[in-house]
Specification:
heterodimer; A: 178 residues; mainly alpha; Helicase, Ruva Protein, domain 3; 3 domains; rod-shaped; B: 195 residues; alpha/beta; Glutaredoxin; five-stranded mixed beta sheet; 7 strands
Chain lengths: 178, 195
C-alpha cells in the first residue's frame, strides 16, 4: 500500500514536472509579431503586381501572402534589413519604395537637387540683372554733368562712360560742321 | 579739348553660352531616357517569330529537370519548350493547371517537349501547396528577381504561356488560361510535326 502511494506521488510529480517544462518552453517562444511590426517593413515594399500600392495597405491575396511571410521571418528573428534583402533577391529591387543608388537609379537622387540648384542660380542671376537694369537710368541721370558750352570735356571723372562718349561724339560732330 | 571715343565692350548679361548648352544637353538626355522607358513599357521585347534570349530557371526542390536543380533555355535546344507563368494567388491559373499537367503527361515520355512552370511574384509555401493541389509534376521554379518575366515583358498578368520551338524561336503567346488539353496540344503538335 505504501509502495503504491509512493508510486502515485512519483507519477504525479513526474507529470507536473513535464507540464511545467512544456509551459516554460511555450512561454520562451517568441511572440507572434504584431501587425504594426509587419507593416513597418511592409510600408517600405511594393508588390510588382499591384504597382503604386504600398504592401502594408494592399488588399490583394499576393500582398497578404507577402505580409504573412514578413511576419514569419520576423518570428524567426530576422532583421528588417535581412527581410528586405530577401524580397530584393526574390522579386527584384523594384519592390523597394526607395530604389538603391545603382545604375540609372542615381538619376532619381541627383537630378532633383541639381535642377533645384540650377533653378535657384538662374533666378538669382535674373534678379541681379533686373535690379541692375532698374538702377542704370537713374544712376546715369544723376552722374551725368551738363555739357559745358566752352567746348571743354564734359563728364570727366563721372562714372557714366557711355554718356561721356556720347557727348564727346556730339562735340566731334559739331567741330566738323564748323 | 575733346576726348576720343573709346571702344568699350558691352556689359555681359544672362547665362553663359556653355551653361545653356549643358542645360539643354541634360534636358534632352532626360527626355531621351523617358522616351526609351515609355517605348520599352509599350512594346513587347520578344515578338512571335523572334529569338528568345537565354535565361535560367532555378527549380523548386522536388520539381527538378532530370535531377538538375536549374534549367537553362539554351540547354533545351532541339525540344519544344512551353513556358507557363503562374502564381498561387492567381485564380485563372487554377482553371488551366490540371489541363497543363494532363498535356505534360501526354508528352513527357517521348522527351521532345519540356514544360517549364515559372512562379511569378509568389511565396514558396503557397506555391508548393498549389503544385500539390494540382499534382503538378513538370519542372517548376520561382522567377527570381522577376528577371524571366522581364525578358518576356509581361505586363498583363498571370497566367501567360509562351511556346518556343526547337530552334529557340518564340512561336506562340497565350495571354490568359488555356481552356482545354486539346487547345494546348493544338499549339505544340504542329511544332513537333515541323510546321
Amino acid at each position: 500500500m505504501k509502495a503504491k502511494t509512493i508510486l502515485l506521488v512519483s507519477g504525479a510529480f513526474l507529470v507536473l514536472t513535464v507540464a511545467l517544462f512544456l509551459t516554460r518552453k511555450v512561454s520562451a517562444q517568441a511572440p507572434t509579431p504584431s501587425d504594426d511590426q509587419v507593416n513597418a517593413i511592409a510600408s517600405q515594399l511594393f508588390c510588382p503586381v499591384c504597382e503604386n500600392t504600398p504592401l502594408d495597405v494592399c488588399p490583394t491575396t499576393a500582398c497578404h501572402q507577402w505580409r504573412e511571410l514578413i511576419r514569419q521571418m520576423l518570428a524567426e528573428g530576422k532583421s528588417p534589413a535581412a527581410i528586405k534583402q530577401y524580397f530584393v533577391d526574390y522579386y527584384g529591387a523594384r519592390v523597394l519604395s526607395e530604389p538603391p543608388v545603382t545604375g540609372i537609379n542615381w538619376l532619381v537622387y541627383t537630378v532633383p537637387p541639381v535642377a533645384f540648384i540650377a533653378g535657384a542660380t538662374l533666378l538669382f542671376m535674373a534678379f541681379r540683372t533686373w535690379r541692375k537694369m532698374g538702377k542704370e537710368p537713374a544712376a546715369g541721370t544723376a552722374s551725368s554733368p551738363p555739357a559745358s558750352n566752352d567746348g571743354s570735356s564734359p563728364g570727366t571723372g563721372s562714372g557714366n562712360v557711355l554718356d561721356d562718349q556720347y557727348v564727346a561724339r556730339i562735340e566731334e560732330e559739331l567741330k566738323k560742321r564748323k | 579739348m575733346t576726348q576720343e571715343p573709346t571702344n568699350v565692350a558691352a556689359p555681359k548679361r544672362g547665362v553663359p553660352l556653355w551653361v545653356q548648352i549643358l542645360v539643354w544637353i541634360g534636358l534632352l538626355g532626360l527626355l531621351g531616357l523617358l522616351a526609351a522607358g515609355l517605348l520599352k513599357a509599350k512594346n513587347p521585347i520578344i515578338a512571335v517569330r523572334s529569338s528568345v534570349p537565354d535565361f535560367t530557371v532555378p527549380l523548386f526542390s522536388g520539381y527538378e529537370y532530370n535531377t538538375a536543380s536549374e534549367v537553362k533555355l539554351s540547354e533545351l535546344k532541339g525540344k519544344v519548350v512551353l513556358v507557363n507563368f503562374w502564381a498561387s494567388w492567381c485564380q485563372p491559373c487554377r482553371t488551366e493547371a490540371a489541363d497543363l499537367e494532363s498535356a505534360w503527361q501526354s508528352y513527357a515520355e517521348k522527351g521532345q517537349v519540356v514544360f517549364l512552370g515559372v512562379d511569378y511574384v509568389d511565396t514558396e509555401p503557397e506555391a508548393r501547396s498549389y503544385m500539390t493541389d494540382f499534382n503538378i509534376s513538370y519542372p517548376n521554379g520561382p522567377d527570381m528577381g522577376t528577371r524571366i518575366s522581364q525578358i518576356f515583358n509581361r505586363n498583363l498578368g498571370v497566367p501567360e504561356t509562351y511556346v518556343i520551338d526547337q530552334e529557340g524561336i518564340l512561336r506562340f503567346i497565350q495571354i490568359g488560361p488555356f481552356q482545354s488539353v486539346a487547345e494546348i496540344q493544338s499549339v505544340i503538335d504542329p511544332l513537333l510535326a515541323g510546321r
